[in-house]
Design goal:
235 residues; mainly beta; 2 helices; 18 strands; 10% helix; globular
């Protein structure tokens, strides 16, 4: 009986461990809950973002959180790391890098119908434009770049295979599965709506996982409500 109970516990522990492994190359579509203001931020300060779409093939669901912290801060530059996934009362360590960052205005515009507000058309039938330019034809249509279908709409977002847009790559670690991209195009890369910012270091190379952003002029400020795509580099 004891052996059977021990075997069951080991099987359960193995199952939980398997659920905690987030495949390298997985995209996490997030919205910042915590703004980043270089005039107020301090090293060690916690930052938090919400997952905006269920992630296929993982235990990650819409509403889960990714937590990180400020590594260093100067008036025109800030370094951050997003390194912990909070899902179903579990804390899963992650190493992530930044693929794209979009302002709150860009996020709002990507949710508005291209033809303008129409009280007779429900949101589930909207045609919208993704951050990066692709169009989403909800209500039975595809996600398209021009006349080419590149993905499909799903609740709260889209599923697309990543396309390269240097310096951003397509699939890595043989993870070519369709990714949850929320409001972003399949080739979204870099900054959108942040003309005064620069990505000095995306976290893909040493120091791996550290993202460094800088303001071209003045003090750096990124508002809560901004959208971002992080890519899991390891877990």
């Amino acid at each position: 009986m004891k052996r059977a109970s021990l075997g069951l516990l080991l099987l359960l522990a193995s199952s939980l461990a398997a659920q905690n492994v987030i495949p390298a190359g997985t995209i996490l579509p997030l919205q910042l809950d915590t703004g980043l203001n270089a005039a107020k931020a301090k090293a060690g300060q916690e930052i938090r973002a919400s997952v905006m779409q269920n992630i296929p093939g993982t235990p990650i669901h819409r509403g889960a959180h990714v937590v990180g912290h400020v590594v260093s801060v100067m008036p025109s530059c800030i370094e951050v790391r997003f390194d912990t996934l909070l899902v179903r009362d579990q804390r899963i360590p992650l190493t992530t890098n930044l693929r794209a960052l979009a302002s709150m205005v860009e996020v709002e515009q990507a949710q508005d119908p291209e033809a303008g507000p129409d009280r007779g058309t429900p949101p589930a039938w909207y045609t919208t434009q993704q951050i990066g330019g692709e169009q989403v034809y909800r209500g039975g249509g595809p996600v398209a770049l021009g006349i080419t279908a590149v993905g499909e709409p799903v609740p709260y977002g889209v599923l697309d295979r990543l396309n390269p847009n240097p310096p951003c790559r397509a699939a890595i670690a043989n993870n070519d599965a369709p990714q949850a991209l929320w409001l972003f195009s399949s080739d979204a890369c870099g900054l959108y709506g942040y003309d005064n910012l620069a990505i000095d270091h995306a976290g893909r190379t040493a120091p791996v996982g550290t993202i460094r952003l800088s303001a071209k002029t003045g003090k750096l400020k990124i508002r809560s409500g901004s959208g971002l795509l992080l890519r899991v580099q390891g877990s």
